Amino acid sequence: MSTPPIYQSTNLPKTRSAAWRSFRIATWLGWQIESNWTDPILFAIYSMLKPLASAAILVVMYGVITNGQFENPIFPYIYLGNAFYIYVGAVMTGVSWAVIDDREHYRTLKYIYVAPIRLPAYWLGRGVARFLTGSFAVFITLAAGVLFLHVPFHPARVDWPLFLLSLMLGVVMLALMGLVLASISLMIAHHFFLIGEAVAGALYLLSGAIFPLEVLPPWLRPLGFAMPITYWLELIRRSLLGDLARGFPTLSGFNNGQLLGILTGLSVLFGLLAAVTYRLCDLQAREKGLIDQTTNY
Amino acid sequence: MGSEARPFFAPVPKASGWRLFLKTVVARAYPRVVGQQRERSWIFFDVFLSILAVSAYVFVYRAIGAPEEYVGFVVVGGAMTAFWLNVLWSMSSQLYWEKESGNLALYIMAPNSMMAILLGMALGGIIATALRAAAILLVGSLLFHVQYAVGNLPALVVVFLLTLAALYGLGMMSASLFLLWGREAWHLANLAQEPIYLLSGFYFPVKNLGFWVAVAASIIPLTLGLDAMRQLLFPSGAALGFLTVPVEVAVLAVLCVLFLVAARWLLGYMERMAIREGRLLESRR
Description:
heterodimer, A: mainly alpha, 11 helices, 0% strand, globular, B: mainly alpha, elongated
C-alpha cells in the first residue's frame, strides 16, 4: 500500500491560469485586510462618513455662495465629478499601496515573490477591495445628492450603455495607472507612501473633477487635456445628465464616440506604460536588493 | 605619573525632578524638529499636497463666483490643516506607533515622566509643523493674491498660540485613547480628516453650519481658532464670524486646561491598564 505524498503539486487547478489565481486570492486577501479590523457596522459607517464629508464640504461651499441654488447646472457638474473621483483614489491607491503594505507592514513581499503567482495580477486583485468600498461610497454619495440636494438623476433618461462602458473603461484605466505607481513603489522607501495621494491630488486639480478646466490658468489646461480622467468624468456626466452636461464648453467639441476613442487610446497607452514600468522597476528592485527592504518609517 | 588614574567609567550626573522633566521634553522634541527637516520629501509632500487641496477649493470658489475673501479663508484653512494632520498622525497615533516599533515599553521603563514625552512630541510637532504651515500660507497667498488686513496683531498671536495649545492638548489626550484602540487607530485617524475639515469649517465660515452644529464642533479647538483668526485677518471676517473674538479666546483657554488635565489622567489610566493586561509589547498586524 503506497503512502500519499506529503506535497501534492497537483493541488493547483491546472485549468486556471496563474494570473487568474493570483487575482482571485489577492482579492480575497485585500478584502480581509480592508475590512477585518472592526465589525461590519463600524466598517459601513467608516466607508460612508469620509466620502459624505468630502461631498458635504463642497455642498456647503456651494450653498454659502449661491444661497442654495442647487438647480444650477454647475452644481451637478461639481457633485458628480467629486462623487466619481472617489474611484481614482480608491483604485489607483488601492493597487499601488499593496507594495508598501506587503513589504514594510506585513513583510511578506519576499514570500510573494517566490510564490507561484503573477505579481501584476496580484496587485490588481489587492485593489479590488478598495474598488468595492469605493463603489459603495460612490453609491452613497450619489444617493445623498439625489435624495437631499436635487441632483438631477432620472433612470429613464440615463444612457446606461454609455455609463457602463465608460465606468468599465475608467476603472481599467485607473487600475493601469495604479500598476504604474505600484511598480515605482518597488523602488522607493516607505515614507514615500504619499506618492499615491500626491498623484490623486494633482489629478483632482487638473482633471476638472470639481470645476470646468476653463477656471484653471491657461498654462495648466494642457495638462488637464492630457489626463484620461478628464475624458472619463465627462463621459460619466454626459451619460447621467445628458444635455445638461454638454452645456460646459471644455469638451463640447467632442461627441461621445470621440471621447470614448480618446479614453480607450489613453488607457492602452497607460497599459503599455504599466508593462514597461513594471519590467524596469522589477529588474532594478531585484538588482539592488530592494524586495525585502524595510525602511521602518 | 603623580596624577590619579582617570576612572574607566565616569558616572554621569543624573537629572531629576523638573530638570529631568525639561530634559525629557527637549529630548523628545529634538527628533521632531531636526529629524523631520532632514527628510526633505516629507516637507515637499506636506506642502505640495496641502497646496493642491487649497488650489482645488480656490478654483471651486472661483467657478461659482465667490467673493475674493473666501479665497483667503481657504488659504488660511489649508495652512491650519497641517496642524490637524500633525495632531492626528504624529500625536494621537504616536503612542500606538511607538508600541508597534517597540519604543513605548522603553519610555515607560525609563525614569522619566510620560507627560514630558507627550509634551516634547507636542512642542516638536508645533515647531516642525509651523514651518510647513507658514510655507503653505506663503505659497497660497502669493499664488492667489490673498489680501490680509490685520488690525490687532497681539490678539491674532494670542488666538494662534491658544489654538495650538488646546489642539496639542487634545492630541496628548487622544494619544492614550488611540493606544487603547490598537490597530483601529490607523482607521480612526484616517476617518478624522474630512469630517473634521467639514465640521471645523476649514474651507468656509463655520457659522454656515448652523449654531448648534458649530457649538458641537467647537470641541475641536481649530473650529473657534480658525474662526477667530479669520475675523482678525480679513475685513469681512467679523461679519462672517461665529462668536465674538473674546468669547472664542475664553473658550479656547478653557479647552486648553480641560485637555491637558484629561491628558494627564488618561495617560495614567492607559499605563495602568496596559501594564495590567500585558498589552505594552503586543503587536497586532
